[in-house]
Amino acid sequence: MANLKGGSYPKQAKDGFHRVEAFGVKRYGSDGHLTHSDAIAAKRDMFFRDIVAFAEENKFSAKLNILMGNETVMNKFFDNRIKDLSVGTAENYLRGFSSLLDGLREKNVTINNTILTPRHSKDKNSLIA
User: Fold this and answer.
1) Which residues pair with 2 in a beta bridge?
2) Angle 22-4-78 (CA atoms, 0-180°, nearest 5)?
3) How far apart are CA 122 and CA 90, in angstroms?
4) 4: in domain
5) d(Cα 34, Cα 121) in Å, to the nearest integer?
6) What is the rounded CA–CA span in Å between residue 34 and residue 27?
7) Of 5, 47, 93, 119, which one's alpha carbon is 20 to 30 angstroms from that of 126?
8) Residue 20 burial (C-beta neighbours within 10 Å; 0-12, 13-18, 19+)
9) Which residues does 4 contact at the CB level (< 8 Å), separation at least 6?
10) Residue 32, domain member (yes or no)
11) Which pTM value belongs to this model?
12) Is residue 2 part of a domain?
């Protein structure tokens, strides 16, 4: 497993984005979590910008993929990010971010598997709190 390359969070985010991009690669018959379209690319760019802004705001020093694998940090990030979103939008954000993490894992980036806790599950009822 590998870390994201780069000395700053924006460079690490760029590396992560390029690792999961798969434009022009056929996805028929595959169950991957890579970026095949411009719409998904725009969302993933937003996810990376959000986590970079959060990391810089909190003055973290670890690599971005280490932060994305830390359950405590991610709980704080999700609490902060989805607090003003509607239930459906929050669910879509969490699913999209989870898919991004799965795509990074498929590309052998080191990220722990224990990210979404019960309070951040894909169940709409748990998002209403």
Assistant:
1) 109
2) 85
3) 9
4) no
5) 22
6) 9
7) 47
8) buried
9) 12, 13, 15, 16, 19, 63, 64, 65, 109
10) yes
11) 0.80
12) no
Helix (H, G, I), strand (E, B) or coil at 59: coil
Q: Is 115 helix (H, G, I), strand (E, B) or coil?
A: coil
DSSP SS3 for 109: strand
Number of domains in the chain: 1
**Integer Cα distance of 118 and 107 in angstroms:** 26
- Check: CB of residue 16 under 8 Å from CB of residue 104: yes
Q: Tell me the pLDDT of the chain (129 aa) as tens digits.
A: 678 888 899 999 998 887 887 766 666 666 677 777 888 889 989 999 999 999 999 999 999 988 888 888 888 999 999 889 898 999 899 988 988 888 888 888 888 765 554 445 544 445 444
- Report yes or no on 58 lying in a domain: yes
Give, for 9, the enclosing helix (H) or strand (E).
Answer: helix 9-20
Q: What amino acid occupies position 16?
A: G
List, as own/partner pairs, every contact residues 120-126 make where C-beta atoms lie below 8 angstroms and the sequence separation is at least 24, other chains included: 120/75, 120/78, 120/94, 122/91, 122/94, 122/95, 122/98, 124/87, 124/88, 124/91
Phi and psi, residue 62, nearest 5°: -75, 165
